[in-house]
Amino acid sequence: MTQAPSPSAAGSVATARKAVIPVAGLGTRFLPATKAVPKELLPVVDKPALQYIVEEAVRAGLPELLMVTGRGKEAIADHFDRQPELEAALEKKGDIARLSAVRHASELGAMHFVRQGEARGLGHAVLQAASYVGHETFAVLLGDDLIDSRDRLLERMLDVQQHRGGSVVALLEVPRQEISKYGCASVRETEEEDVWAVTDLVEKPDPDVAPSTLAVIGRYVLSPSIFDALRETPPGSGGEIQLTDGIRALVGRGEPVHGVVFRGRRYDTGDRLDYLKAVVRLAVDREDIGPEFRNWLNGFVAGGA
Ligand code: G1P
To answer: Global pTM?
Structure first.
């Protein structure tokens, strides 16, 4: 598969405008809560986890959003739609704060939806975005990865993509025994301290043979050539079509793929323990309930609650 990279793929300096958010996952780690409620709508304080992701994309300058969804996820479209009856009731009560919170969710960006049909892996989910994305560089944001809004990871990745072209992944240094939960990158350094050139990728390697402890986390800025690569990608880890394998194919074709090393706050809201940590971390920083919650928490930790 040695093929000269096309100018639009390797040398693209186009600014990404579209974000793809795969939300078709079953959420088995959160059963029974996710039996009827999509895991992406579980609240982190008082906002669905997915709304943080959408707000992050819009803040980074990606106002066009595509959700790759599946059966039983209709509530996601409802959440980002208008709710005239609810809005009228809040208006009548004069509850302006909640009214604007409800409206805000429907005014975030241009929201589009496509169904994955079959659960054949993350690469397959991203492939469903091909006709929506067309020939543009685009971002992928995974719903389980909540990046603290004070840490501007996606903005940095878009910036790196603009300067270097090709594709950019987000990398996080993890303990070796945890690398089997992630895509893992082999890298070499660049002149920028937080940017690595990716030389190879492997999905969910055994910790004993993993080429590094650099995990790929759920933010990607991808060249549209990923779609051709994914069409040719056979099922890999877990029998699924892996996005990691598609990006690996881009590296194999000589297209630039870089990794931005993230050192900020990230929560895996698909994991029960990390989900609780995310709720606590974000709640203590809230202006409204933060001070009181922090007080209670201090007492609780001291054994007094
Ligand atoms: C997916 C990707 C994996 C990546 C991870 C980040 O795995 O396949 O490469 O490291 O997201 O959260 P999943 O968590 O869906 O198993």
So the answer is: 0.93
Together in a domain, 204 and 287: no
- pLDDT grade, residue 305 (50/70/90)? low
Residue length, the chain? 305
Q: How many domains does the chain have?
A: 2
Residues 208, 293 share a domain: no
In CATH, what number is assigned to the domain containing residue 237?
3.90.550.10
Q: What is the mean pLDDT of the chain?
A: 92
C-alpha of residue 244 to centroid of ligand 1, in Å: 8
Evaluate the omega torsion of the peptide bond into residue 291 and state whether it is cis, within 30 degrees of 0: no
Judge whether 24 and 119 are in contact, CB under 8 Å.
Answer: yes
Quick count: other Cβ atoms within 10 Å of Cβ 95? 13
Condensed to tens digits (0 to 9), the pLDDT of residues 154-200 reads 999 999 999 999 999 999 999 999 999 999 999 999 999 999 999 99
Ligand 1 atom 9: residue of nearest CA? 183
Q: Which of 174, 181, 198, 268 to mutate to test the pocket of ligand 1 (most atoms within 8 A of CB)?
A: 181
* Cβ 269 under 6 angstroms from ligand 1: no
Q: Given a cut of 60, is residue 65 above it in pLDDT?
A: yes
Which residue segment(s) compose the domain that 294 sits in? 271-305
Claim to verify: residue 24 and residue 124 sit in the same structural domain: yes
